[in-house]
Amino acid sequence: MKKEKNYFRVTIFGSARIHKTDIKYQELKEFAKALGKHGFDIVTGGGPGLMEAANAGHREGNIARIAKSIGFTIELPFESHANKHLDIKKHFHKFSSRLDNFMDNSNIVVVTTGGIGTCLELMYTWQLMQVKHICSMPVILIGEIWKDFLKWVKTNLLSNKLIDKKDLNNLYYVSDTGEAMNLILKEHKKYKKNNR
Fold it and tell me: What is the DSSP string of 131-149?
């Protein structure tokens, strides 16, 4: 599936291992609820943990049922089932085709707490923008977990000229979901202006 014109889609990457009792789960659920209220589509990996939090919150907030909660599930030994809060589900057997579908369906990317899979999704997005295989879009990194990552990037990659300063232009670190929402609303305003 591809992005439909005039549909603004927020892709959310995050861990499958975060439980419902975790504050991060609750915060992301509220954040996605607000995205649903604004009528933005969301795209997640469709699995448990923070993906479920996003899809569940979005469904609660999307009272008008205009926006879609989309899940791109993947065949894994520990994450084979989709969460029950999806309007649209697409299943993948390989990460490569799944990652490309995330890119085809994103206007903006939000990266929350996560492990190797989340890091893969972040780096894939960033790399494709660097080589201009996809259009530039904001990548919002939420929370303390990404502070040291950005410090490492600047200390080891930027200072050794392994990346250019402009490669950091689309990465935005924010401490919480409120800051993330402000950036999304600004980006949506630009999107509407360009798609009149």
Answer: TTSS----EEEESGGGHHH
